[in-house]
Known about the structure:
Layout: H1 10-24, E1 27-29, E2 36-38, H2 47-80
Antiparallel strand pairs: 1-2
Amino acid sequence: MSSSNRTVNVEETASVKHQAAAADQHAVATPDDGEVKNTEPPAHASRGRKIAGILVAAALISAIVWGLYMRAANEASVARAPRLPPFLQST
């Protein structure tokens, strides 16, 4: 076995890989003609997707508020509960 000592410019290698990845980023192969066509992603999310996100966020915030309300109500009911005299408390 022989090993070769060669100098590789890391910046050039990285830039070539980056350019190749950028060129293939929007390429889609079609099965019928075998050609590669460039496609662009949509510029923004659809209206339905935005509405769904807003509804999910509203449901999450409502659940958090409801949980905090229930916790406060339970703590208030425990605070109002009568306390047992010391001789009836179990240790």
